[in-house]
Design brief:
14 helices; 3-stranded parallel sheet; single chain; alpha/beta; 5-stranded parallel sheet
């Protein structure tokens, strides 16, 4: 891969997670990228080390619980991007201390990539942790960019924005919309989000700003009309799902992944959590040409319909 000689060196933390894996190839087009790996993982997973080295990706050893190891890993690094999982969000507090100590970090992107955590913070436990990380970052004086992407289209467009609705079929389905069905839904495919995240991370205009990746801005009712316009069967829409129903459901769901998803959808549908706040920059406005190359709802639904028809024909 050809790299600009003066490209900043970027350290990606959480490179093996879903978001990190998606971000990595797009960041490499903008920066000289190194990934952080725990010393224990480095020693016990030679296959992974060889895979990264074969792709000419540098590995920095460090542990998010060890400030000194992070200081060493940050040598020569200008930009830090964190995509750590929810369970490790507060470990970024130690990372911020290490970045403050080295004193040469030009930009830190904390692990957000969701929705505005200031909006009804009590809705989702991890929101409070992200707010805590943000405050520590602001207090540190380290330049930053906070990026949110909304929910992934892979998940949200399915069921017309209703996580409890059945998957698509070529016959009419019984569905229920959360609330009125007119709540704003901002979503894009994970890789499209990552492509735009990389643009924002390399852009001086986004320094010390919040950014929303807004590839597709729609509503549940608009999703239904798009599906029907493309030839899909119109679903039978039942009574709306109320907020009280969702709150009760959240209190009874014990699976952590499902509970988290329900809490996010509750915030989005009933507290306007999927709408771009006024103090966020818009990637569709900043990078219109890149956005045009991203997958639209129409393209996504058209492919689903084609696949369903082909499956039925065979």
């Amino acid at each position: 891969m050809t790299m600009q000689p003066q490209a900043d060196k970027l350290l990606l933390i959480g490179a093996t997670g879903q978001v990190g894996r998606s971000l990595l190839p797009f960041l490499r087009k903008k920066f000289q990228v190194a990934v952080l790996m725990r010393p224990k993982t480095y020693a016990s997973n030679p296959k992974k080390v060889k895979e990264l080295e074969a792709e000419d990706i540098a590995i920095r050893q460090g542990d998010l619980d060890d400030e000194d190891s992070l200081v060493n890993a940050l040598e020569g690094i200008s930009v830090v991007v964190s995509s750590v999982a929810i369970a490790s969000l507060l470990s970024q507090l130690i990372l911020i201390k290490a970045m403050k100590k080295v004193g040469h970090i030009k930009r830190f992107v904390p692990s957000d990539f969701g929705i505005d955590v200031r909006n009804h913070t009590d809705d989702v436990p991890s929101f409070k942790e992200k707010v805590q990380v943000h405050q520590a970052l602001f207090d540190s004086g380290i330049p930053y960019t906070i990026i949110d992407t909304g929910p992934w289209m892979e998940l949200t467009a399915k069921g017309f924005g209703g996580p409890l609705n059945p998957d698509f079929e070529l016959v009419p389905q019984d569905i229920r919309l959360w609330g009125s069905g007119d709540t704003v839904l901002t979503m894009g495919f994970l890789d499209d989000n990552s492509r735009l995240c990389a643009e924002a991370i390399a852009d001086d205009r986004t320094l010390n700003k919040r950014v929303m990746v807004d590839v597709n801005v729609t509503t549940a009712n608009q999703l239904i009309e798009t599906w029907v316009r493309l030839g899909g069967p119109r679903p039978r829409v039942g009574p709306p799902v109320t907020e009280d129903e969702v709150v009760q459901l959240i209190s009874h769901v014990t699976d952590p992944y499902m509970n988290f998803g329900l809490r996010i959808m509750h915030n989005g549908h009933f507290h306007d959590g999927f709408k771009r706040p006024d103090d966020y920059l818009s990637t569709s406005e900043l990078y219109p040409e890149v956005t045009k190359a991203c997958t639209t709802v129409e393209q996504h639904y058209a492919k689903i319909l084609t696949d369903l028809k082909q499956s039925t024909a065979t």
